[in-house]
What does this fold into?
Amino acid sequence: MLDTAPAVRAAEGRPGRRDPGPARPRRHRPWPYLLIAPTLAVIALLMFWPMAQIALMSFQKVGNRQLAGAPAESVGLENYRSILSDELFWQSLRSTVLFAVAAVTLTLVLGTLVGLLLNRLSRRMAALVSAGVMVAWATPPITAAIIFTWLFGTTGGVVNWLLDLLPDALVGGGWTDYNWFATPLRTYTVLTVCVVWQSFPFVAVSVLAGLKSLPAELLEAARVDGAGAWRAFWAITFPMLRPIFLVLLVLSVIWDFKVFTQLFVMSGMANRDAFNLSLYAYSEAFGGMNAKLGLGSAIAAVLTLLLLAVTAVYVRIMVRQGEVS
Amino acid sequence: MNVRRSTAAPRGTARRGEQRGGRRGRRGGRLRAVGLNALGLAVFAVAVFPVAWMVSTAFKPNEEIFSTTPRPLPGSPTLEHFDYVLGGGIAEVSFWTYLRNSALLALTTVLVSGVLAVLAAIAVARFAFRFRTVFLVMLLVVQMVPAEALVLPLFLDLRRLGMIDSLAGLVVVYIGFALPFSIWMLRGFVAAVPRELEEAAAIDGAGPIRTFWTVLLPLIAPGLVATSIFSFITAWNEFIFAFTFLDDQDKYPLPVMMQYFFGNASNEWGPIMASSTLLTLPVIVFFLLVQRRMVSGLTAGAVKG
Amino acid sequence: MRFFKFAATATAIALAVTACGGDGGEDTAGGAPARLNVWMMGEGTPEQTAFLDGVEAEFRKKYPDTDVVIKYVPWPQVATTFQKAVASGEGPDVTEIGNTDVQSHIAQGNLADITDKVKGWSEAATLNKTALANDQADGKIYAVPWYGGVRGVWYRTDWFAELDIAPPKTWAELVAAAKKIQQEKGVPGIGAPSDQTNAILSFIWGNGGEVAVKEGDRWVGRLDQPQAKEAIDFYTGLVTVEKVAPEKYVGKNELQGPQQDFALGKLGMYIDGSWALKEMKKISDKDADKWGVFPIPAKNGGNAPVMAGGSDLAVWENSKAKDAAFDYITVLNNKVNAAKWADYSGFSSMFTDVKFTDPKLAPFTEIAANTKMVPLSAGWGDFEQNKKVIPNAVKAIMQGGSSAEELAKANKQADELLNP
It folds into this structure.
């Protein structure tokens, strides 16, 4: 689930109030099963069956001959052996993880700060700022990637121009022709800015919703006690909103782990050194004239397993909060 | 699939803030308010700047776009880039074709996943059945599966079914991705409708179907609007599946067109920004709309409970 | 986008091979058919349609009762369309074919043997020999080259005149010219983006090197050989050693910076095709009259061979009207129409004596006289477009990697990818 509202509601501390739930046991009527049947069919066909196929294909050779109708050949662990011994796999994995750590941290910190700010602003100001924040959130990934490529470009790029205007003592000189996509570190810097820009609004709005649910008296009391904003946050706000932060953390990790579109547009295939796992899997799988779907599946399987591990944490949180009862 | 969504929304934002401000000393309060407002404006600027820059670039003539001293607003605004995009089309296909494809994909996704989601939401919110918990957990897990991985097997499956390079095949996939979230969100809205209302209708002699149309549906309408908009955005923004599955340029939706255009004409920033603007604006409008809806929908749900 | 489409091509070819039975087409060659099906690749434009209308009018002087039906096949659908044509027997009479696909079409028996017809066509004498060689198998001719895109070095004629530089004929002169521009004009001398396989190939070939050569039925990588290494060292050295090419194009292609910078007068030279003229004018036509082109030099003088992407024309084996089909080709690609087409499309005619009207583009005709084909392996698309082997190696070297190591790696990939 991609919504923190239940967590917000849970934080309101009135668990019994919500979800009157499936009271009245109406027994073994076919109704509920009929109602979920189409959904089950869709999910089974589009989610579970493909996942099973990924698992299966990761042990097979699926190339052009198989695409043309020949039966798949089993190759045992060959695909996994091949990716694990590929330097590029480890590099992609490292990039994926490091990027996720950086982007998630920045997203959460910035989002929380903005959420706290929104909570303190006057009604009109808050409306204005949240509308602005929505704009960043709404921008489709493909446009975001194109815009940031343009902002960080060399001719007509506004970022280099600004950096060049700043005093050299501060940022150094020679920014005009700075190539932001030359090395993985630089590419990922731009990618991080882009992704954080798109994702902090979600965190901000969720944190704000959580703050609204807190009894104002608590914070007021803390202030009367002379606690600064910093202490009040850690002593009261954070513990009260812990469930929301947990959910936000897990969701952010999952999203930032599999970024594809933005990186694909920004650096693409000519910069293999900047691959992440998604791009690596895609490039191996749809290998031009020589598709290697088996190999791609092995990488996809690794990616999926990593994400499922995170998902397990998430499901546990949700179950504990009584969201799936 | 990467739409970051929340049903959580600021409600009653201001009242509390005002109360709080009121209790403090006058001058300190005002100073603080100025500081906070300045910060707020800074956040606003950072959030809006990239999109504003895109729109502004779309209206600049080429000399200004490539100028060594960029200016925030177009000095002599021009519509030539929009003319180019809307008139000539991209890769010999009219912009309206891409737009139609995107709209078709998004609307079909909304419609089908909406219907299926209502059915399933009623099941989980109104009935006790054996695998209910399993079903709910499944909905959670399924939303976390990386689309970037599923694209491989789905490509093969649709290829076998001869549904590759067709919008129909793509829609099926989008429904799969929009559905779990829609159900999850809608079930709250269904649960919030007092059961007594339905029972009253039943006593009046209405069958389950009439009860649904006359009682339940009108009450969950705000929720349905909200989920619809999120499904719409999911399909509208989706890139990787459309990019992988479609060969025929006539069938490209806007994001794939953008990527194609960007890859083949990396220099034409004016037209690129113009078409980006056309792709982005509907989503932004919808987002700002949904913001309101979500607030009313949520507060309504909260009051009933 | 492009890279992915190769998957479709591959499968289509694989399918076509299995589907391709005997042709069974009865050749009723002589007479005038009621209808002549012509397939053109690409989406078609109003200008192209107007051009083809003119061709048809001319053709119908000889075949007044024949209706010429043009069908545009967008490039992404080319493979599947041909595949269906083979399977169903409903093919074209005349078709345009991408020059890298000609050999596989010949191998599948899709194209008619037009050896005698070409020999009887007087204008064929000045067809580009390399391109024509690509249309032959076992001494027979199956297609004729139509147009091609070749690259040269764009430069500023006014700067060259002012600084007294002659168009470079060797690598050393190229570097010297770039240095002079850089010193005197305060802009980078030349653009050397890492993601421009076709331009890099000219340096390798211009030094007698190869990407791969065919030994028996296997392609064997040659990127680790001294000629290739020296060429790559030179190209990357423009950035790292001579410092006449800016670092800002590393990881990019010619469209992601060099083209616009050159058009804006912020770059001394860069490598691109004739079609770039239209694009650059769109960016800024202030200095358009001062742009010129010279051929990419080989190391020790002369023009380096250039990769020619392009299209050929062929008669479909199953056509019932092969004579009329070939006659159509001779009208479509007579020298008058060839010149018109070159002007409209921005691509060089494959006649060595058909020039662009715009004198600025004239050098491209000379350049097109010395073309070379990339290894005609089914894996080339993978090597070039998807894995971008050369661009990635070049990038690594530009960023301080050892060229011996990177090229050894690239060569290993060539060995693998070119033998799918």
Remarks:
- Chain C is about 45% helix and 15% strand.
- The longest strand of chain C covers residues 35-41.
- Residues 2-149+308-372 of chain C form a domain with the D-Maltodextrin-Binding Protein; domain 2 fold (CATH 3.40.190.10).
- Chain C touches chain B at residues 1-2, 4-5, 8, 42-45, 74, 76-77, 80, 253, 255-256, 259-260, 264, 279, 282-284 (CB under 8 Å).
